[in-house]
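anyone seen this seq b4? input:
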Amino acid sequence: MTFEAILFDCDGVLVDSEPITNGVLCQMLGEAGWPLAPEECMRLFIGKTVRSEAARIEAATGRPLTDAWMAEFYARRNARLQAELVAIPNAVEAVRAVHARLQGRIACASGADRQKVEMQLAQVGLAPLFAGRIFSGHEMPATKPAPDVYLAAAAALGVPPARCLVVEDTVTGVQAGVAAGATVLGFHPGGTGHGSPEALRAAGAVRVLTDMAQLPEVM
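predicted toks r here
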């Protein structure tokens, strides 16, 4: 199939943010009375928003998940991202290549809040390639694994979801892309912060890339 647009997840696909964000979350949950090993915290929260797991957090800590706690989480998260964030290897080059090939018909469709997505893309030099085509699950009726953010991105590009290729690194994200009616590529470069290749395929990914440099070749 020839695809008319590519819709990218952000965290773990374009930027190596998951270990940073999850590290802040793990530390703050420990301070709140729920000590977790980093690996367990990653397993529980990868691909999910913190607020979507409010019931789990409140049950484990015995405290309400307040707006003040979330504000502190965002502030500490953003400070570390600004100090440490880098692009996924070969992601910038791959995005430039497909942006040129598809005449700009690409979008970033993330489950994260818009401020975080825009900050991260700007930090690694990708913001100009996605200008006006950034979509946040926080602004949709439902976030991933619901398809809303991918449906919104496809509609904005004027491309039917069935003609879109989605690139995702978590089970939640793959489920969202499949539910939207798109073809989904999984991404697993190794290390923590990504769904396993087996889990991505089981969720509906037709293939799992191990290097973003493979993306232009797949197209």
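The chain has a mean pLDDT of 95. The first strand starts at residue 5 and ends at 8. kinda curious what u guys think
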